[in-house]
């Protein structure tokens, strides 16, 4: 707990300011960044690092000059990094107009400048399986292909085709080459997508074009604007593709600056496998803490796939490195505080390119620092990767061992519970899988396990169940028969209770259920209701709501106990109910209603009775239902609400002596008044707190 | 339609108009109040705007460049009016002998204000200015040439110009003169005066047995100038001084030395001709950042400096600096060659004024950065131990660490351990608060009875010696602070704890309670009221849940009796008691950083007196004399790119004086490497466990950092680690480390005073060292001479 406290005290201190919870009691790993994952409920939780820094490379590139002396040069605004299958490293050293080739240890192998036709601002580099080097020579608007020794093979210039119009700007920034030899080129600012060349270097087609992001405002504009106005609008264009990567199985990954689907995983036909995923959503970043005034917008710059299909994503402006598995679910993400002018091992400041080598080490090229940060998976990270890989291959039981190992290393890593649960389910240990699914926060899995358990129970106990039903029916019949014959009472007469008025009044609620209109009228004219009974019913309702939200099974309410939030439920319920009563009375009184405040109060309370009646059975039912009976459960719930609503309706009608139309108007006005009431209350609170703080500040200044 | 016919129409209209006007007036009033606010603030708006425009580079460290730029501009303006400052080093022939003893001779030059120290034995000379050898004019900027020649550099503010911008200058650039030079018995007193700006800096230099102590006296320090009427007073005030910053500074031409900074276990910056980056600067506050100045200030991400020590070695000489007075108000600053100038230098920087964020609204979102107006005065002294090469044995960081060890023994009376046994540090996590549906409840994780079981199991597998520290034993559990006593009943209560302590003592084990939680109070127990008793910063805002040190002292001392009655052996302290140090601006409990330090020292004394033993987590230098064990020591550096080597300086200095452990082995990032590091650095193993399954910890939302604590998962590892440590280090717990070196890449050798050697191989393949083979990620033990 005491670990590296100083390092993080400031960040925690800021967190504290926001949440004012426990002070600095968080331990931090011995790396200059923090690693998080999301637990089953989407909360950010910190974990031990999944990757640890393994040093920096390419900090300085030694060049032997003409006279044999060694000069040290640094990378200038490098834009791309590529790691060849043999783990050699290629860097597009953009502002130095060269490609730097290093070996795995970071020692210089060669520098490629193509003297025959010098490179100009190359922004991308790719090495094909046969060793050919492809360079996105951005400044010269071409792709250069060299053989493995750096000797010229050919260049691929602007695509010529009738599908490519004149306005198309061709400035290659990066490219990949697939196994068939097709070349996929990213062109700067191109909204047409990836330019796909066939192996001969001829234009084939545009690939993986993004869809246009249309906002609601655009649709409205289109409806109302004239043609002329529309033509003056900025044309809606698809988001451009920034970067590209390819994995062993031929999936092509594109990186775009869109809001969702920033990373697309596309098969050869250009279909996106990762639909509707929003990457890097709700992630914590130190840059947010430091720059509270203007939180930087995410800027995902590159992605890289490792041999297990996990994808590492880098975000340049927020400095987040995240990793997703091959299904697009988050594994980890990490970031640290980067301070201008201070460079740390393992901490990026402006990451532009990421690559993974055959040992699953991550290499991240930093544009600002001009070097490569190297990370290697920790024991924990490797264990998680392995478990995910096996699970994806369907080897649940094999994955189980790895998940157990992951949990031994970090019991808070909830995806592991999911993995174990699936393995247990697979094996038929439904009781265990149910518990594990609960830990993993998976309501569906929980429900499925329960379905199996219920089936087993029915199978085992069907005869007993059937027999007991028959016996109960016989017993009841016998009992009613006896009761008829001897006329005895089962429940003794509670004469003392009966004498209490509130008891009588409360009992009236059953009458209301049967004869709502009459019953509510009686409230008013026969004094069948009073404050005491109304409050009792209100309290019962509150009790029912609490019990219901506590006992509703995990299937239908998959949240942890602490998140069920008793206080918030209660506050919202009471505030709504009370303001309803007040507003309804006010509206009634100006709209010639006849109800007194007492009537509205009592009536509104009595109308809640269905909740008491059905809430508990509903909670009980949720514990024997599974998601396949969702419709029954849902309709009972809706029925309860409808019944309540109807009672409210009748209660207004009867008590205020309204017609149906008037009642509807009354309800609408009440709702409107409630809204106004709350707006005014919030304004008042806001203003008075401003005022009080103003007075307090004056007091402070005077007293100081 | 009834609405319009009814008589109530006028009423509705009136209500409507009223509410509309009310709303309108609210909105108007709101905008108005904003205006007024703006007007009220108008005089600070300027500052504000400036602060905002400058917000990108709030960080002084990151900004040092721009400060430098500014300083250059400023000093060049000043230079024109004052006498031409000399951009050269003082002439050594002008130095007169001042004092000497049998080892060293001190010479000084009253004109330049510099001194030199000569070793009588070897003739090595240490200068208070850079070594002129290898000086190359073109490698240093004009501004830095003046800095290099000056006896001190300083930073100041002009409050009437801009409140948040430091101006960097130095004695020579200000055209300063020495106005008083007085020989004393063992040194000299000197008065540096800078009439332009009105600063007078009195300094005392004393020669000791093998050291020189320099001291800036609080008495006589002046940083105000009386301006004649009509002349505008820029209100220049002192912010910090680096006294003799280039003492023994060397260039990297010979690549024969290093700078040592106290980051983590110790970090070295080698003298390197080629080094990327021109902004490499290490600057860290001794004993860490101060929360009283934390609002909106980016606090350091580096390991806090817990030992105020630094060093420099070049060729056949070295100097070890120890800040002996006013350490709590000093930074340690180091820059390798190629950054700022061609020299490698390391120095303390004494702080006199502190940057803080003055909020102008209650939400503390708006405001401006400024410096404290009051000067924080106290004597600031640094002792420079001069070390020269003996018997052709090259000076290394081990030599420096050994000198520091001697310093700790001489100055703090620390004694070498005798017959010390290797003890496994067992931390037990007691309990925490569980968030519930209607109310929170207590979540027991290791009750005292279960603790007995754990200890029993460990004894059974052969872990003979342990120190047991109970975390989260306090009344509401680990993450709730305040009202520590009594031990909660669900944990076993005071009685249970007493029984457990008795049991442990009967087995010869010690029980410690973690009492660092006294630093905070998250509730209202102990009579704590946040507004009255909480730590406040300079802007008078309350800081989180931190308690005023004086209030904490009261509560802590009140509880000591009860702790004593439990029969425990001691406390494990940390956080605000021994680790971090804060100034408190709470009117009820005012305390300076120095006084906070004294409070902490008192608490250590009293704990030791009442309970017998004290451990501390990440303790600062002033706690070392009281402790039995140093817990949770950082084992790595802060990942600065300019650090070339990480060395066990702290461990070499402390081994044999006290035992120490690193982070809990079961929460390591890399289990094997952490274990090897422990073996290499001579630590003892440390674990944190619970009796409850690790899953149980999920019920509390504040225990995320305890990834894996189920003791059943770790008992085997505890056994094997204990046995391995015992075998490797069991017999050297009371021996000093006398040697440490890197044999080849990733292979390190540690030597103890009895000749025992441990060779650790971090590489993924086995290596051969002399006649020994060390397996991959493994180590060997050489019994050596003993």
TrEMBL record, chain A:
The chain crosses the membrane at residues 462-482, 531-550, 570-588, 600-620, 632-652, 664-687. Residues 511-681 form the Yip1 domain. It is a multi-pass membrane protein. GO terms for molecular function: zinc ion binding. Residues 1-29 form the signal peptide. CDD domains: NHL. Keywords: Membrane, Repeat, Signal, Transmembrane, Transmembrane helix. One of its GO terms (cellular component) is membrane. Pfam families: NHL (PF01436), Yip1 (PF04893). InterPro entries: 6-blade_b-propeller_TolB-like, NHL_repeat, TPR-like_helical_dom_sf, TRIM-NHL_E3_ligases, Yip1_dom. NHL repeats lie at residues 118-149. Coiled coil: none annotated. Its main location: membrane. Gene3D superfamilies: Tetratricopeptide repeat domain, TolB, C-terminal domain. It is found in: Membrane. PANTHER family: E3 UBIQUITIN-PROTEIN LIGASE NHLRC1-RELATED, PROTEIN LIN-41. This is PknD.
Automatic annotation (TrEMBL), chain B:
The chain crosses the membrane at residues 9-29. Residues 37-95 are annotated as: Disordered. InterPro entries: DUF5696 (IPR043751), GH (IPR017853). It comes from the Bacteria. It holds the Pfam family DUF5696. Keywords: Membrane, Transmembrane, Transmembrane helix. Residues 72-84 have a biased composition (Low complexity). This is DUF5696 domain-containing protein. Residues 38-66 have a biased composition (Basic and acidic residues).
């Amino acid at each position: 707990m005491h670990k590296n406290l100083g390092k993080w005290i400031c960040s925690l201190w800021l967190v504290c300011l926001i949440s004012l919870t426990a002070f600095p009691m968080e331990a931090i790993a011995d790396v200059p960044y923090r690693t998080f994952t999301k637990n089953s409920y989407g909360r950010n939780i910190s974990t031990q690092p999944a990757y640890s820094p393994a040093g920096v490379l390419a900090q300085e590139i030694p060049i032997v000059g003409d006279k044999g002396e060694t000069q040290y040069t640094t990378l200038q605004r490098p834009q791309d990094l590529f790691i060849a299958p043999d783990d050699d490293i290629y860097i597009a050293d953009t502002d130095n107009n060269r490609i730097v080739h290093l070996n795995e240890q970071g020692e210089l192998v060669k520098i490629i400048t193509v003297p025959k036709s010098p490179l100009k601002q190359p922004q991308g580099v790719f090495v094909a399986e046969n060793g050919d080097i492809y360079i996105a020579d951005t400044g010269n608007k071409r792709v250069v292909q060299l053989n493995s020794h750096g000797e010229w093979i050919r260049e691929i210039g602007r695509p010529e085709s009738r599908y490519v119009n004149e306005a198309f700007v061709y400035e290659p920034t990066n490219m990949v080459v697939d196994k068939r030899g097709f070349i996929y080129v990213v062109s700067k600012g191109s909204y047409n997508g990836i330019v796909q060349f066939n192996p001969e270097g001829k234009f084939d087609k545009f690939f993986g074009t993004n869809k246009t992001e249309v906002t609601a405002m655009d649709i409205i504009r289109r409806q109302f604007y004239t043609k002329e106005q529309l033509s003056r609008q900025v044309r809606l264009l698809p988001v451009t593709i920034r970067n590209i990567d390819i994995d062993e199985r031929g999936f092509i990954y594109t990186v775009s600056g869109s809001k969702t689907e920033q990373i697309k995983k596309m098969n050869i036909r250009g279909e996106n496998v990762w639909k509707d995923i929003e990457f890097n959503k709700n992630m914590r970043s130190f840059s947010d803490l430091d720059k509270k005034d203007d939180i930087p917008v995410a800027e995902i710059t590159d992605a890289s796939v490792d041999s297990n299909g996990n994808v590492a994503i880098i975000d340049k402006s927020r400095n987040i490195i995240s990793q997703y598995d091959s299904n697009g679910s988050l594994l980890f993400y990490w970031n640290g505080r980067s301070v201008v002018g201070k460079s740390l091992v393992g901490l990026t400041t402006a990451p532009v390119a990421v690559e993974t080598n055959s040992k699953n080490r991550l290499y991240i090229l930093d544009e600002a620092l001009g070097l490569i940060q190297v990370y290697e998976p920790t024991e924990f990270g490797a264990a998680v990767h392995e478990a995910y890989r096996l699970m994806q291959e369907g080897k649940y039981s094999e994955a189980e061992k790895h998940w157990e190992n992951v949990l031994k290393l970090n019991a808070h890593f909830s995806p592991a519970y999911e993995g174990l649960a699936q393995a247990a389910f697979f094996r038929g240990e439904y009781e265990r899988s149910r518990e594990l699914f609960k830990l993993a926060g998976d309501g569906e899995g929980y429900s499925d396990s329960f379905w199996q358990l219920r089936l087993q129970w029915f199978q085992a106990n069907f005869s007993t169940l059937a027999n007991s039903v028959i016996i109960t029916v016989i017993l009841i019949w016998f009992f009613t028969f006896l009761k008829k014959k001897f006329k005895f009472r089962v429940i003794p007469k509670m004469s003392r209770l009966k004498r209490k008025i509130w008891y009588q009044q409360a009992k009236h609620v059953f009458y209301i259920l049967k004869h709502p209109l009459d019953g509510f009228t009686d409230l008013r004219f026969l004094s069948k209701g009073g404050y005491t009974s109304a409050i009792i019913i209100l309290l019962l309702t509150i009790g029912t709501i609490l019990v219901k939200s506590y006992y509703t099974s995990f299937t239908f309410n998959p949240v942890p106990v602490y998140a069920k939030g008793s206080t918030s439920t209660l506050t919202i319920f009471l505030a709504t109910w009370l303001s309803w009563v007040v507003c309804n009375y006010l509206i009634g009184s100006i709209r010639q209603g006849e109800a007194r405040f007492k009537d509205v109060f009592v009536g509104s309370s009595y109308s809640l009775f269905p909740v008491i009646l059905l809430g508990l059975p509903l909670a009980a039912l949720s514990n024997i239902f599974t998601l396949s009976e969702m419709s029954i459960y849902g309709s009972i719930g809706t029925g309860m609400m409808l019944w309540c609503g109807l009672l409210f309706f009748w209660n207004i009608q009867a008590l205020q002596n309204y017609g149906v139309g008037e009642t509807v108007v009354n309800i609408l006005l009440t709702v409107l008044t409630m809204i106004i009431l709350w707006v005014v209350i919030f304004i008042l609170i806001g203003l008075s707190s401003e005022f009080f703080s103003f007075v307090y500040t004056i007091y402070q200044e005077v007293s100081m | 339609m009834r609405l319009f016919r009814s008589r109530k129409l006028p009423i509705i209209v009136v209500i409507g108009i009223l509410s509309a006007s009310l709303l309108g007036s609210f909105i108007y009033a709101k905008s108005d109040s904003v205006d007024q606010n703006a007007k009220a603030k108008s005089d600070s708006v300027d500052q504000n705007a400036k602060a905002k425009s400058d917000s990108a580079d709030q960080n002084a460290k990151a900004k040092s460049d721009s400060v430098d730029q500014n300083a250059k501009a400023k000093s060049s303006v000043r230079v024109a009016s004052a006498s031409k400052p000399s951009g050269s080093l003082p002439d050594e022939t002008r130095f007169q002998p001042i004092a000497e003893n049998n080892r060293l001779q001190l010479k000084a030059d009253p004109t330049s204000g510099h001194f030199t120290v000569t070793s009588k034995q070897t003739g090595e000379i240490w200068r208070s200015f850079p070594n002129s050898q290898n000086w190359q004019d073109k490698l240093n900027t004009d501004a830095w040439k003046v800095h290099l020649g000056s006896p001190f550099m300083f930073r100041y503010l002009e409050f009437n110009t801009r409140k948040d911008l430091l101006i960097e200058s130095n004695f020579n650039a200000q055209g300063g003169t020495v106005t008083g030079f007085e020989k004393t018995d063992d040194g000299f007193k000197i008065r540096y005066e800078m009439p332009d700006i009105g600063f007078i800096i009195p300094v005392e230099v004393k020669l000791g047995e093998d050291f020189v102590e320099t001291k800036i006296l609080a008495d006589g320090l002046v940083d105000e100038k009386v301006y004649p009427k009509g002349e505008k007073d820029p209100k220049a005030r002192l912010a910090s001084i680096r006294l003799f910053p280039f003492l023994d500074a060397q260039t990297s031409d010979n690549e024969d030395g290093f700078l040592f900074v106290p980051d983590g276990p110790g970090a070295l910056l080698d003298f390197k001709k080629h080094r990327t980056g021109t902004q490499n600067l290490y600057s860290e506050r001794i004993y860490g950042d101060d929360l009283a100045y934390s609002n909106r200030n980016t606090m350091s991400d580096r390991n806090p400096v817990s030992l105020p020590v630094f060093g420099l070695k070049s060729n056949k000489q070295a100097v070890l600096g120890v800040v002996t007075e006013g350490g709590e108000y000093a930074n340690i600053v180091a820059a390798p060659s190629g950054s700022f100038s061609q020299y490698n230098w390391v120095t303390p920087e004494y702080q006199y004024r502190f940057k803080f964020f003055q909020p102008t609204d209650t939400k503390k979102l708006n405001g401006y950065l400024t410096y404290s107006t009051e000067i924080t005065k106290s004597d600031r002294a640094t002792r420079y131990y001069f070390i020269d090469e003996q018997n052709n044995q090259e000076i290394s960081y081990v030599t420096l660490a050994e000198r520091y060890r001697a310093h700790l023994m001489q100055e703090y009376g620390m004694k070498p351990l005798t017959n010390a046994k290797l003890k496994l540090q067992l931390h037990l996590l007691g309990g925490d608060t569980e968030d519930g549906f209607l109310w929170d409840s207590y979540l027991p994780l290791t009750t005292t009875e279960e603790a007995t079981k754990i200890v029993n199991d460990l004894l059974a597998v052969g872990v003979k010696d342990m120190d047991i520290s109970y975390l989260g034993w306090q009344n509401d559990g680990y993450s709730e602070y305040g009202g520590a006593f009594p031990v909660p009943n669900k944990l076993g209560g005071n009685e249970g704890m007493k029984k457990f302590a008795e049991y442990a003592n009967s087995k010869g084990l010690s029980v410690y309670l973690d009492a660092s939680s006294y630093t905070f109070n998250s509730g209202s127990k102990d009579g704590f009221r946040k507004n009255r008793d909480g730590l406040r910063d300079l802007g008078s805002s309350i800081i989180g849940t931190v308690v005023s040190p004086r209030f904490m002292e009261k509560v802590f001392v009140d509880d000591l009796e009860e702790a004593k009655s439990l029969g425990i052996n001691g406390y494990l302290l940390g956080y605000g008691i021994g680790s971090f140090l804060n100034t408190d601006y709470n009117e009820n409990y005012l305390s300076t950083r120095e006084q906070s330090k004294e409070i902490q020292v008192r608490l250590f004394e009293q704990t030791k007196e009442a309970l017998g033993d004290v451990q501390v987590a990440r303790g600062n230098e002033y706690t070392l004399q009281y402790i039995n064990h140093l817990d949770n020591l950082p084992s790595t550096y802060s990942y600065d790119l300019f650090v070339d080597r990480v060395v066990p300086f702290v461990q070499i200095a402390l081994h044999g004086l006290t035992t120490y452990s690193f982070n809990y082995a079961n929460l390591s990032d890399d289990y094997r490497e952490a274990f090897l590091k422990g073996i290499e650095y001579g630590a003892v193993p440390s674990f944190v466990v619970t009796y409850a399954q690790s899953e149980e910890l999920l019920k509390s939302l504040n225990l995320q950092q305890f990834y894996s604590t189920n003791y059943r998962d770790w008992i085997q590892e505890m056994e094997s680690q204990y046995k391995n440590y015992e075998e490797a280090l069991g017999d050297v717990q009371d021996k000093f480390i006398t040697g440490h070196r890197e044999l080849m890449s990733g292979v390190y050798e540690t030597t103890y005073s009895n000749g025992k050697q441990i060779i650790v191989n971090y590489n993924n393949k086995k290596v051969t060292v002399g006649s020994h083979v060390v397996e991959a990620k493994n180590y060997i033990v050489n019994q050596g001479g003993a």
